[in-house]
Give the backbone structure.
Amino acid sequence: MPRALRDRLARRAEREHVPLAQVIERALDENEDREFWARVHRENAQLSTSERQVYVGGSTLGDDLDDAGDDALSERGEW
């Protein structure tokens, strides 16, 4: 490992009060997250309007707050 890189990592570890291994792990995790979201953006950019429309209003996008069963439980105090 180049000395300059090791020194950068060591400075960050000291500043964050964590072991060097944790700094390296965080850097890898952050890079993997960036790669994932870049891939998501690329794939979404390639969707046609009709393909994108499939996801609009999908059931997984709701919060399920409008639920008669939950309302009934609340009314009966059965939570």
User: Anything to note?
Assistant: The two ends are 57 Å apart (CA to CA). Residues 46 and 52 are 9 Å apart (CA to CA). The mean pLDDT is 88. Residues 3-57 form one domain.
